[in-house]
Design a protein that fits this description.
Layout lengths: L2 H20 L6 H25 L5 H26 L2 H26 L10 H19 L5 H32 L3 H10 L1
Helix pairs in contact: 1-2, 1-3, 2-3, 2-5, 3-4, 3-5, 4-6, 5-6
C-alpha cells in the first residue's frame, strides 16, 4: 500500500461522509459537501501525479482509481437529482452516469479481447471530467434556485455534451472490434 493508493481509498471513504453531511438539516451542508467533493477531486489529481512522479503505479491503483472516481461522481449526481427534483438536472445526470456504465463495459470487453489500448483515455475525457467536477461543486455549494446553481446546471450540460462526444470517440475506436466487416470475418473463418 503506497501513498497514491491511500489517497484513492480516501475518496471512497469520503463518500458516506459526503452523503451524511449533505443530508444534515443545517444550512452549511451545501458548502461542506461541496468542499468534500472538491477535496475528492484534488486527491484524484494528486494520486495520479504522485503515482507517476514517485513511480508508484500499481495494478491495484490502476483498478481502484477509476472506480473511486465513478462512485463519487455517481453518488454526487444522485443526491443532486434528489435535491433538485427536476428533469433539467436529471437529464445530464442520466447521460453522465449512463455513459460511465457503457464505457466501463466497453473497456472490460475490449480488455478481454486484447484491444484495451484502442480505447485509452483521451484529452476530451480530461476536459469532460474538469467540466463535470466544477459543475458538481457549484451545484453542491448552493441550494436550488441560487444563480450559481443555475450556472452549475449549465456547466453540467456542457459536461454531458462532452460526455456524449467522448463516448462517440470511444465507440468509434472500438467499432472495428465491435462490428468486424464481413470480409475480415470470412478471412478469420478461412484461417481456422
Amino acid at each position: 500500500m503506497n501513498l497514491p493508493n491511500i489517497l484513492t481509498l480516501s475518496r471512497i471513504v469520503m463518500i458516506p461522509v459526503f452523503v451524511a453531511i449533505f443530508y444534515m438539516p443545517v444550512e452549511w451542508r451545501y458548502m461542506v459537501s461541496a468542499a468534500i467533493f472538491a477535496l475528492a477531486g484534488a486527491t484524484d489529481w494528486l494520486d495520479g501525479y504522485l503515482a507517476r512522479k514517485l513511480d508508484q503505479s500499481t495494478p491495484f491503483g490502476a483498478f481502484l482509481d477509476p472506480v473511486a472516481d465513478k462512485l463519487m461522481v455517481a453518488v454526487a449526481l444522485t443526491v443532486l437529482v434528489e435535491e433538485y427534483h427536476s428533469v433539467v438536472l436529471t437529464l445530464p445526470a442520466v447521460i453522465i452516469i449512463g455513459r460511465e456504465i457503457v464505457i466501463s463495459a466497453l473497456r472490460e470487453w475490449m480488455a478481454e479481447i486484447g484491444s484495451r489500448a484502442s480505447v485509452a483515455v483521451s484529452y476530451i475525457g480530461k476536459v469532460k471530467t474538469t467540466a463535470q467536477v466544477v459543475a458538481i461543486i457549484m451545484l453542491l455549494a448552493f441550494p436550488p434556485g441560487v444563480s450559481w446553481a443555475y450556472a452549475g446546471v449549465s456547466l453540467l450540460y456542457v459536461a454531458a455534451a462532452l460526455t456524449l462526444w467522448s463516448m462517440v470517440l470511444y465507440l468509434r475506436a472500438a467499432w472495428p472490434d465491435l462490428f468486424p466487416s464481413a470480409e475480415s470475418t470470412r478471412a478469420v473463418e478461412r484461417a481456422d
